């Protein structure tokens, strides 16, 4: 089985207008989208962003028939303080093949918004990982810890500044992630659009040395032009860290897929 993008947004997410069928032309035999679930979302005046599950499942069924491909259901769970019970209740009533766990916001601001770039970078970094530490202890029922660096995407930190400010917290966060079988996501948008490759080199080693063994690659595409963006680069990064597999999630099961034989032209 070949690997495929495991972090993708379509028009079922509040911040994407891309039709699922526009990705299908690019997808191999398998496709998954991971739509935003974000309660109290500051990006939309603190409304709840919830995918229309009934329409989502109907569109997946339609595309499965139309294309003959396997189309899986995914969600990107935005966890923030006080949301754990709402999230658990939602997940108790909606099934997914893959669940990403993300930390985007603090109730008043999304850390991806432009205004964050005007704040004190070390304060933002400390605040973000304090939130993640608290949040992952409250809720960790997911498959993947997505973009561990989301809160620092808008900042320019050296690896040294990052490790001094967030290294201990991130280590403790990864311990909880590993205890709960959460995979480490190589988020190629963070790595190549927001230039955080250095932070990924640093964090992969921590996750690995703590005993973490699960990895995914996700483009975080919000339109089809970014589908599987920089996948070859991310595979090469894994191999440079002596990691030779990817973990693939579907139908409640996890599969380990070797990556050494994946063709160069992926
Ligand atoms: Zn996200």
TrEMBL record:
Pathway: Amino-acid biosynthesis; L-histidine biosynthesis; L-histidine from 5-phospho-alpha-D-ribose 1-diphosphate: step 8/9. It catalyses: L-histidinol phosphate + H2O = L-histidinol + phosphate. GO terms for cellular component: cytoplasm. It holds the Pfam family PHP. Residues 5-188 form the PHP domain. The keyword Amino-acid biosynthesis applies. GO terms for biological process: L-histidine biosynthetic process. Keywords: Amino-acid biosynthesis, Histidine biosynthesis, Hydrolase. It comes from the Bacteria. Its EC number is 3.1.3.15. One of its GO terms (molecular function) is histidinol-phosphatase activity. Belongs to the PHP hydrolase family. HisK subfamily. This is Histidinol-phosphatase. The lineage of its organism: Bacteria, Bacillati, Bacillota, Bacilli, Lactobacillales.
